[in-house]
Amino acid sequence: MHSFKILNYIWKREIISLSFLFFSCYFYSQTFVRDSDGKIFDEVTIIRNNKNIIINKNTFKDYKPAISDKILFNQKLLDFAIGNDSLFFFDKVKEIEEINIVGDNLGNKKEKIIKSGETQKVYADIFPNNYIATFIKIGAKKRTFVKSITFFPDKRFSIKNLSGKIQIQIMPNLGGFPDEDSTILTFEKDMSETYQNKWEIELPRIMKYPDNGFFVVFYYQSNNKKMTATLKLNNESDMFLFYPTNKEWKSIKNNGYLYKLKILQ
Questions:
Q1: Is the pLDDT of residue 191 over 60?
Q2: What DSSP character marks residue 98?
Q3: Is the pLDDT reported for residue 112 higher than 70?
Q4: CB atoms within 10 A of CB 248
Q5: How confident is the model at residue 95 (pLDDT cuts 50, 70, 90)?
Q6: I need a labelling partner for 72 at 20 to 30 A (CA). Which of 65, 105, 107, 187 fits?
Q7: What residues contact residue 241 under an 8 Å CB cut-off, 6+ apart?
């Protein structure tokens, strides 16, 4: 009987410890972080359509961000990003508009404003009715967020009156291939935007940069395969095509599309 009481006490103590651990993990996972110094706040104020929305740890799980939302902090409207059950807001922003596609030989160098490597006079269509993925990876040594991605149409081959919507997805890198089961963002853009020298795609919400890179996936549905956009290529990353019959991604001969990132650090 005495042994049973001891075991019963130990069992209850373990349950209490596990409950406390679960509560602690849940409580601390709902955090609001000032990016400049990592300070954690109990609540933040969101401005949406000129209205204040107070979000705390209890209401954070129900919050659904809108594109126009901003954080109100010290009488300023700030950008923010959500990742891993945390909200990061940017009180001090440095925008690096051009980031080199990083190879192993650049891993120990400081980040600079460098244009990504371009393959001269080489370009490729956004092949209609196919899922096309281009890989993006930069040498970010500290927490980094992506605000926009710019591609470079070749106007010599682009179509001026191109119409319709193109679906764009941001997918994680899983073993060197796009992970379509864990898509980060999905949105649409008007194909008429591609008839210019620079096609800047502002993300619907700021995205935390994954350490192992990510894929931009295009899908443009068209009845005329000749009616599409043509983009310049880089000389370092790969391009992938999805084969629906086998349900797999395969690398193709083309390099990835030339790009430029606008990031927040």
A1: yes
A2: -
A3: no
A4: 11
A5: low
A6: 187
A7: 127, 130, 131, 132, 133, 249, 250, 252
Task: Give the residue among 135, 107, 171 at the shortest CA–CA distance from 259.
Answer: 135
Q: Which residues have CB under 8 Å from 184's CB, separation 6+? A: 170, 171, 172, 207, 214
**Neighbouring C-beta atoms of residue 44, cutoff 10 Å:** 21
SS3 sequence of 144-182: CEEEEEEECECCCCCCCCCCCEEEEEEEEEECCEECHHH
User: pTM of the prediction?
Assistant: 0.68
Distance (Å, whole) CA 216 – CA 253 = 17
Distance CA 63, CA 107 (A): 38
**Better pLDDT: 54 or 93:** 54
Mean pLDDT of the chain: 78
Tokens 């790009």 belong to residue? 259
pLDDT in tens, 205-258: 888 888 899 999 999 988 887 788 899 998 888 899 999 998 999 998 888 999
What residues does 219 pair with on adjacent strands? 131, 167
Helices in the chain by DSSP H: which ranges? 2-29
Tokens of 244: 């629906």
CB-based contacts of 103, cutoff 8 Å, min separation 6 = 236
